[in-house]
Write a structure and sequence with these properties.
By secondary structure, this protein is α+β, with helices and mostly antiparallel strands. The chain has three domains: about 120 residues, Acyl-CoA dehydrogenase/oxidase, N-terminal domain (Butyryl-Coa Dehydrogenase, subunit A, domain 1, Orthogonal Bundle); about 100 residues, Butyryl-CoA Dehydrogenase, subunit A, domain 2; about 150 residues, Butyryl-CoA Dehydrogenase, subunit A, domain 3. It has ten helices and nine strands. The strands form three sheets. A four-stranded antiparallel sheet has the order 2-3-7-6, with helices on one face. A three-stranded mixed sheet has the order 1-4-5. A hairpin with a 2-residue loop joins strand 4 and strand 5. Helix 3 packs antiparallel against helix 7. It is globular. Belongs to the acyl-CoA dehydrogenase family.
């Protein structure tokens, strides 16, 4: 027998009431990250984007570390040990501020820290993870090369043995955090297959020129890694993995965060469009009162709502230990693509103001052009899902 209760108020940015699916702890994590972003980052991020640099990246890293977001889904070594869903909610809030800020956290925690946590020696974990979790040391992840993106097995960076040491030579490209990093996890070809190395960035022969003239992810540090006869001790190699399984496992962690993060950029743009539409008057009434504008707003909100539900479902799967890489590809493929379309539609509602950094929309739109490509292109994720569906590989 059902009873009649008063319906909760309709929330324009949560029309399906997804908030009710979150636990009190999950909401607390989300709210704490949102508060830090609102107070510390939002007032400055448009200026950082325009300047092409975060004003004090090390200071910001320490604040993020103090909040516990670096490697927050990892256990031990100073990491917060939170759930995958809580980590996802944090990524959503970070990217609602800026994709570049979420990239800082993702590369630190899901790539560099995860590689050491999952595949490193106890010595490597003890040396680096507590400092990285606290934001006192910044990490980067060297996989992509100037001519090698979607086919990491063809990488040209080499590591050869010299007595008890390793000598690394090669070049990596489009590496987030590289020019400010204290440690780099670098993947290289060896006579034992692809291996990972923990490389302190003050090692002779290591350099990280910053990449300039970007029109996307401008509030993010991006650079190269140049390895010119970098000599490392035997203990620098990650001992627990050989082959592409190592770097691909890390990429899967980062892709999961993107599934959530992209919805943050979408929410920010949707909120800006809704607010603007209610305030902008044409022909005697707000443009939100016109059918075509309402159709845009509703369609944007539908895709946003479905994207958050997908992210939440995958988060629950990951927490249950059931999440497959193909499902992460499905989430990344859908959510980034739909987030980009939401941002583009929001831009049309703002008209000419949509290209101004006074509003977040063009910044999110530009950033998502990079997010669409990194951690696996649309083409690669399409073929991953296609292979899972059909049983046939179409990569070659």
């Amino acid at each position: 027998m059902s009873t009649t209760t008063a319906s909760p108020p309709f929330e324009p940015l949560d029309p399906a009431g997804i908030d009710d699916l979150l636990s009190a702890d999950e909401k607390a994590v989300r709210d704490s990250v949102r508060q830090l972003c609102n107070e510390r980052i939002d007032p400055h991020v448009a200026e950082w984007f325009e300047q092409g640099a975060i004003e004090d990246v090390r200071g910001l890293a320490k604040e993020l570390g103090a909040l516990g977001v670096f490697g927050m889904h990892l256990d031990g070594y100073g990491c917060a040990g939170m759930s995958a869903t809580e980590y996802g909610l944090a990524c959503l809030e970070l990217e609602a501020t800026d994709s570049g800020v979420r990239s800082l956290v993702s590369v630190q925690g899901s790539l560099a820290m995860f590689a050491i946590w999952r595949w490193g020696s106890e010595q490597q974990k003890q040396e680096w993870l507590p400092r990285m979790a606290a934001g006192e040391a910044i990490g980067c992840f060297g996989l992509t090369e100037p001519d090698i993106g979607s086919d990491p097995g063809s990488m040209r960076t080499r590591a050869r043995r010299d007595g008890n040491d390793w000598i690394l030579d090669g070049r990596k490209m489009w590496i987030t955090n590289s020019s400010v990093a204290d440690v780099a996890v670098v993947w290289a070809q060896t006579d034992q297959g692809v291996r990972g190395f923990v490389v302190p960035t003050d090692t002779p022969g290591f350099s990280a020129p910053e990449i300039k003239h970007k029109l996307s992810l401008r509030a993010s540090v991006t650079g190269e890694i140049v390895l010119d006869g970098v000599r490392l001790p035997h203990s620098a190699a990650l001992p627990e993995v050989r082959g592409l399984k190592g770097p691909l496992s890390c990429l899967n962690e980062a892709r999961y965060g993107i599934v959530w993060g992209a919805m943050g950029a979408a929410r920010s743009s949707l909120a800006a469009a809704l607010s603007y539409a209610n305030e902008r008057t044409q022909f005697g009434k707000p443009i939100s009162g016109y059918q075509l504008t309402q159709q845009k707003l509703v369609d944007m909100n539908l895709e946003y709502t479905k994207g958050v539900l997908l992210a939440l479902h995958l988060g629950r799967y990951k927490d249950a230990g059931k999440l497959r890489p193909e499902q992460v590809s499905l989430g990344k493929l859908n959510n980034v693509r739909e987030a980009l379309e939401i941002c583009r539609t929001a831009r049309t509602i703002l008209g000419a103001n949509g290209i101004s950094l006074e509003y977040p929309v063009i910044r999110h739109m530009n950033n998502l052009e990079s997010v669409l490509t990194y951690e696996g292109t649309v083409e690669m994720h399409t073929l991953v899902v296609g292979q899972a569906m059909t049983g046939h590989s179409a990569f070659h």
